[in-house]
Amino acid sequence: NKLYGLLGHPVGHSMSPLMHNDAFKQLGINGYYHAFDVPEDKLKEAVDALRLFNISGLNVTIPHKVTIMEFLDEIDEEALMIGAVNTVVNIEGRLIGYNTDGRGYLTSLLTKLNKPLKDSNVLVIGAGGAARGIVTALANDGVALLTIANRTIEKADEIKNHYLKYREANINVLPLKKAQLNLARYDIVINTTSIGMSPRVDEVPISIDHIKQTAVLSDLIYNPIETKLLQLGNKKGIITHNGVGMFVEQGALAFLKWTGKQPDTEKMTKIVMQQLG
Ligand code: ATR
């Protein structure tokens, strides 16, 4: 029996245990996934314990995604570029850190679009941890026109400059207000901030008055499933994309790294949707 788990604080509302344990069952894998509630100052002890008990794989969430990096034996390049780890694989005692958030998001978005992103003009709203994953995955995937808009411009600059330490890319940075005025330029608009997340369900990160009718409006938030921002997009009749797919796909990519098997993401989505009510 192989053991897997989530390290975070809090973890009580996590949908990952149900999602992964069901996938183990579906695929006939003798595995078990448990959510470990690890306070911020206990992370090193937790990682030592996981080594001792030979846990096979982990997900990592807030507040440990950045701090866990120093306790691992190896970090994958995309995780280094993002500057955070959300997945750990234990290979014969060596703990290797990955980040499946950006790639999970990209997989979900591409499934929705059904065409490559290469020629799209993409706007990323926000410059927190979630934005880092998205910007890295989009730039690594070859998006030619990428803009980060943030209230605090320095944080957007920081993401851009961190990326450029690793690879070349054409990344623009804008204050949020300016992006709002120029919104008609973008083919894909992605909210990576927590604005609109429960309980702040009446707030939007940006006005979409000027958005293109052919644009795709995407929000990383999945609670609520349809944020105020996406509601406004739907009212306009544009294509919208919520955060459920990213959650499922980041989990599926982690599962694949742990087990070598691709889980059924449709079944995973059903489980997540049931949980979200
Ligand atoms: P993370 O992505 O790491 O979870 P977060 O705290 O959820 O981070 O979100 C941070 C992002 O939301 C930042 O881009 C932040 O803008 P600043 O860098 O200017 O702080 C943005 N954000 C949060 N509240 C905001 C608000 N009221 N108006 C505009 N942007 C806001």
From TrEMBL:
<dbReference type="InterPro" id="IPR041121">
    <property type="entry name" value="SDH_C"/>
</dbReference>
<keyword id="KW-0057">Aromatic amino acid biosynthesis</keyword>
<dbReference type="GO" id="GO:0019632">
    <property type="term" value="P:shikimate metabolic process"/>
</dbReference>
<feature type="binding site">
    <location>
        <position position="86"/>
    </location>
    <ligand>
        <name>shikimate</name>
    </ligand>
</feature>
<protein>
    <recommendedName>
        <fullName>Shikimate dehydrogenase (NADP(+))</fullName>
        <ecNumber>1.1.1.25</ecNumber>
    </recommendedName>
</protein>
<feature type="binding site">
    <location>
        <position position="222"/>
    </location>
    <ligand>
        <name>shikimate</name>
    </ligand>
</feature>
<feature type="domain" description="Quinate/shikimate 5-dehydrogenase/glutamyl-tRNA reductase">
    <location>
        <begin position="113"/>
        <end position="194"/>
    </location>
</feature>
<feature type="binding site">
    <location>
        <position position="243"/>
    </location>
    <ligand>
        <name>NADP(+)</name>
    </ligand>
</feature>
<dbReference type="GO" id="GO:0004764">
    <property type="term" value="F:shikimate 3-dehydrogenase (NADP+) activity"/>
</dbReference>
<dbReference type="GO" id="GO:0008652">
    <property type="term" value="P:amino acid biosynthetic process"/>
</dbReference>
<feature type="binding site">
    <location>
        <begin position="14"/>
        <end position="16"/>
    </location>
    <ligand>
        <name>shikimate</name>
    </ligand>
</feature>
<dbReference type="Pfam" id="PF18317">
    <property type="entry name" value="SDH_C"/>
</dbReference>
<dbReference type="GO" id="GO:0009073">
    <property type="term" value="P:aromatic amino acid family biosynthetic process"/>
</dbReference>
<feature type="domain" description="Shikimate dehydrogenase substrate binding N-terminal">
    <location>
        <begin position="6"/>
        <end position="88"/>
    </location>
</feature>
<keyword id="KW-0521">NADP</keyword>
<feature type="active site" description="Proton acceptor">
    <location>
        <position position="65"/>
    </location>
</feature>
<dbReference type="Pfam" id="PF08501">
    <property type="entry name" value="Shikimate_dh_N"/>
</dbReference>
<dbReference type="InterPro" id="IPR006151">
    <property type="entry name" value="Shikm_DH/Glu-tRNA_Rdtase"/>
</dbReference>
<feature type="domain" description="SDH C-terminal">
    <location>
        <begin position="243"/>
        <end position="272"/>
    </location>
</feature>
<dbReference type="InterPro" id="IPR046346">
    <property type="entry name" value="Aminoacid_DH-like_N_sf"/>
</dbReference>
<comment type="pathway">
    <text>Metabolic intermediate biosynthesis; chorismate biosynthesis; chorismate from D-erythrose 4-phosphate and phosphoenolpyruvate: step 4/7.</text>
</comment>
<dbReference type="InterPro" id="IPR022893">
    <property type="entry name" value="Shikimate_DH_fam"/>
</dbReference>
<dbReference type="InterPro" id="IPR013708">
    <property type="entry name" value="Shikimate_DH-bd_N"/>
</dbReference>
<comment type="similarity">
    <text>Belongs to the shikimate dehydrogenase family.</text>
</comment>
<comment type="function">
    <text>Involved in the biosynthesis of the chorismate, which leads to the biosynthesis of aromatic amino acids. Catalyzes the reversible NADPH linked reduction of 3-dehydroshikimate (DHSA) to yield shikimate (SA).</text>
</comment>
<feature type="binding site">
    <location>
        <position position="250"/>
    </location>
    <ligand>
        <name>shikimate</name>
    </ligand>
</feature>
<feature type="binding site">
    <location>
        <position position="220"/>
    </location>
    <ligand>
        <name>NADP(+)</name>
    </ligand>
</feature>
<comment type="subunit">
    <text>Homodimer.</text>
</comment>
<dbReference type="GO" id="GO:0009423">
    <property type="term" value="P:chorismate biosynthetic process"/>
</dbReference>
<feature type="binding site">
    <location>
        <position position="61"/>
    </location>
    <ligand>
        <name>shikimate</name>
    </ligand>
</feature>
<keyword id="KW-0560">Oxidoreductase</keyword>
<feature type="binding site">
    <location>
        <position position="77"/>
    </location>
    <ligand>
        <name>NADP(+)</name>
    </ligand>
</feature>
<dbReference type="InterPro" id="IPR011342">
    <property type="entry name" value="Shikimate_DH"/>
</dbReference>
<dbReference type="Pfam" id="PF01488">
    <property type="entry name" value="Shikimate_DH"/>
</dbReference>
<dbReference type="InterPro" id="IPR036291">
    <property type="entry name" value="NAD(P)-bd_dom_sf"/>
</dbReference>
<feature type="binding site">
    <location>
        <begin position="150"/>
        <end position="155"/>
    </location>
    <ligand>
        <name>NADP(+)</name>
    </ligand>
</feature>
<feature type="binding site">
    <location>
        <begin position="126"/>
        <end position="130"/>
    </location>
    <ligand>
        <name>NADP(+)</name>
    </ligand>
</feature>
<dbReference type="GO" id="GO:0005829">
    <property type="term" value="C:cytosol"/>
</dbReference>
<feature type="binding site">
    <location>
        <position position="101"/>
    </location>
    <ligand>
        <name>shikimate</name>
    </ligand>
</feature>
<keyword id="KW-0028">Amino-acid biosynthesis</keyword>
<dbReference type="GO" id="GO:0050661">
    <property type="term" value="F:NADP binding"/>
</dbReference>
